[in-house]
Amino acid sequence: MSWPDTEARNPMEESSADGASSLFAGDTGELPLETRRVLAQLLAGPSLDGRRHSKLWSALLRDEVIVRTRLAELFLELIIDRDLQVAFLRQADAGNLDAPVLLRSVPLTFLDSALLLYLRQRLTQAGTQGERAVVGADEMLDHLRVYERAVNTDRAGFSRRCQNSIEKLKKHSILQKIRSSDDRFEISLTLKLLFSADEILSLTRLYERMAAEYEAADSLATDDPEETET
Fold this sequence. Notes:
By secondary structure, the protein is mostly helical. The chain is 47% helix and 10% strand. It has two domains: 14-91, no CATH class; 110-220, Arc Repressor Mutant, subunit A, CATH 1.10.10.10. The strands form two sheets. Strands 1-3-2 form a three-stranded antiparallel β-sheet. Strand 2 and strand 3 (86-91) form a beta hairpin. The longest helix is centred in the last third of the chain and has 26 residues, at 197-222. The chain is globular and about 60 Å long.
């Protein structure tokens, strides 16, 4: 005579529909842990960096098809650059469908845009030399001071706006703090995918022209010729 199995089961050991182990009580998911982490990282944004998230990168490449499928169900498109080892999400072009927009857009100020362009140029320079793109806070501030006349009402206010721009890019992982330094950052390779070559060229020309105009205005404003007595 056999007795029924009355031993209490641990819900963590129960199986989901496809036979995979559940990860928590009430879990009805089908994907393994690392693949779920991939989805979570992509949705949290702004990117999945293969150099910083090597295990997640391997899981993404292994399960790319299923990851794309799950994201497509949310009207999201997966963008992967295998050479740079970077992946991020873009809102899918749903045509005339009334599709919800899940990705948040980040409004950029004039200084934000100027800083992004500068960092993109530094990233290009580092890439041609086969180096990591590293930048210091003082370098970014020096670059932004060229545009001071465009947005400045007072020097302290302008400095605060510059710091806010740097903090915004740190928050969105465009600037990644180097552990051994308090004021030096590595520029994320994701930035390479955000600006095309044509966009970089046109924006560079625009900002160079604006910087030249501001410098010329500064020169005229500070030019105080001595009066001659007659």
